């Protein structure tokens, strides 16, 4: 029995592991959601630099910061194509 407890680790380690897995899963969901939103937005308009698929891939890998860059470059009033 002592050998089994030795591999189980100290009490509380399982809770920390579950918390990290939940945070990781939440991060994956956020990246996917932002990538899908950027993809949908990019298909509706002409994009700068690269096409919609590349913007979505960059957002999938980079997350909300890349989505912010997409918004500033392509959607906001700061973009080159903004009507003044």
Description:
With 84 residues, this protein is an all-alpha fold. It is built from 4 helices and no strands. Helix 2 (13-44) packs antiparallel against helix 3 (52-62) and helix 2 packs parallel to helix 4. The longest helix is centred in the middle third of the chain and has 32 residues, at 13-44. The radius of gyration is 21 Å and the shape is elongated.
Short description:
The chain has about 80 residues and is mainly α.
Largest sheet: none
Spans of at least 5 consecutive residues whose pLDDT stays below 50 are: none
Number of domains: 1
Cα distance, first to last residue? 75 Å
Radius of gyration: 21 Å
Anisotropy-based shape? elongated
Count of DSSP E strands? 0
Percent of residues in helices comes to: over 70%
Number of helices: 4
Sequence of secondary-structure elements:
HHHH
Query: Mean of the pLDDT scores?
Result: 85
Beta-strand fraction estimate: under 5%
Summing up helix and strand content along with how strands pair, one would put the structural category as mainly alpha
């Amino acid at each position: 029995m002592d050998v089994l407890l030795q591999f189980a680790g100290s009490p509380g380690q399982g809770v920390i592991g579950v918390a990290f897995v939940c945070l990781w899963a939440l991060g994956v969901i956020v990246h996917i959601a932002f990538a899908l939103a950027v993809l949908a937005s990019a298909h509706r308009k002409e994009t700068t630099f690269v096409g919609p698929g590349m913007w979505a891939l960059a957002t999938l890998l980079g997350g909300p910061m890349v989505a912010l860059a997409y918004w500033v470059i392509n959607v906001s009033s700061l973009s080159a194509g903004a009507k003044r």
